[in-house]
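Worked example
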Amino acid sequence: MPDSLIHDPHGGMARLLEIMARLRDPEHGCPWDIEQTWETIAPYTIEEAYEVADAITRQAWGELRGELGDLLLQVVYFAQMGAEEGRFTFDEIADTISAKMVDRHPHVFGDESRDKSAEQQTRDWEKVKAAERQSKGEARVLDGVALGLPALLRAYKLQKRAARVGFDWADTGQVLEKIREEAEELATATAARDRDAVEDEMGDMLFALANLARHLGIDPEQALRRTNDKFVRRFNAVEDALHARGTTPGESTLDDMDALWNAVKRSEKS
């Protein structure tokens, strides 16, 4: 392949695929890229997906194109390794997802009527996905909920899947009661200084909170990200206030920082 494609600023997808093939070339490629494996690249894929989500959350549209490119590179990386091992090619990846999208949207690409509510579309989508899981031998209700998901998100999805077959609390009041029960069990384990029990009960508490979020129609990951951002914003404001006094958090008392924290909260709500 001539270098003209490598250096073509408008080479598009063909250019990126050729760049990756050259990077992985055993004789002339980059030593680092040649050494990478499925396992070493997977964590970068997760990280890049979060950076895409972060740019969208911040509405950093100028950064988003680059972040999407970084995420696309991960797919190209896996496609190149798949081709090297005779497993699949990039085109086969694209063909597979294209076929899936056509199959899952008979109301767009087939004869099925589009005259349905979004709720009905969701139910139909779930039926199609359930059939796909069954065809892959995933017969159990919770099969196919990815192990690699963040734990809070996986808890949410596990509960959502179980709820489809009726394994669910009837209302939020029952979930709140379960949270109170878990809080008492966590307090008991903490008082007993049983670390293993504390970890177990803490997991139960987080699982119950994820369930409450589902009942309230809230994405627990998004809610926690929002709180994380709020904590960073407020703590930075506390730190700035301390610097204005000529001191730092490490040199301040908890009472001093707590007073500034409350002042920041009041200013945000005013």
In short: The chain has a mean pLDDT of 92. DSSP finds 13 helices and no strands in the chain.
